[in-house]
Amino acid sequence: xxxxxxxxxxxxxxxxxxxxxxxxxxxxxxxxxxxxxxxxxxxxxxxxxxxxxxxxxxxxxxxxxxxxxxxxxxxxxxxxxxxxxxxxxxxxxxxxxxxxxxxxxxxxxxxxxxxxxxxxxxxxxxxxxxxxxxxxxxxxxxxxxxxxxxxxxxxxxxxxxxxxxxxxxxxxxxxxxxxxxxxxxxxxxxxxxxxxxxxxxxxxxxxxxxxxxxxxxxxxxxxxxxxxxxxxxxxxxxxxxxxxxxxxxxxxxxxxxxxxxxxxxxxxxxxxxxxxxxxxxxxxxxxxxxxxxxxxxxxxxxx
Length: 303
Hints:
This protein is mostly helical. The protein has 13 helices and two strands, in the order ααααααβααααβααα. Helix 12 (257-275) runs antiparallel to helix 13.
């Protein structure tokens, strides 16, 4: 997977500074919209480990996202320093249970297996009392180190989501430069050759699947923290498909592609809602043009 060099990372840092300065020059709605895009970028970036690095397309990640979000609800009012690692742990455990079974398959069968497991998680929270009801529930936000007033919440959660996404990106940027990251890339290029050279392909893919699921749980935790609301709809396979769409739009083989794709898709949807009641039509046209004209995505158009 392609990683940005120093200049590219400086550009991302400049974009992050612009977002960090939004409380000084933008309104509440714009900050809430930016937080939505940041959470979407976290979720898509968690899936990029599989899709962009190992070449695995999963439709179970909305389930891991939902497990992380519902962990905040199930734990009740507590500290964010408890709910955040608990959300990642619970989503990672779910991935560790699903991964060994799903990774016994390949290609289309892997896709359908992850879809089946993702729908199982969806109905677990949708049709049982565990999730608090099919319509969703409001929750008490975990406490942080400081008291956040209602008027300051959009700015605080914007900065918190920005810091979380930045740390996730930096961690994955480092990870993809290690031997583990190179091995995942080798699996994507030629899995049989990697196995022939002595690599434990199944173990490497399982580790990537668990790490990816845990990071999806982190994104779900931040969504629950920001919105103070969880709904079974976040576990539906359509949510996983949206993350794949962001990766495709931003660039499959580019580490920062999901971030670009998440913000691009958010802006396209916002523009579509402002000009027509059929915003999905505009969204489809933009995506079709990107697929036909930008085969490497928005993040890789210069190459």
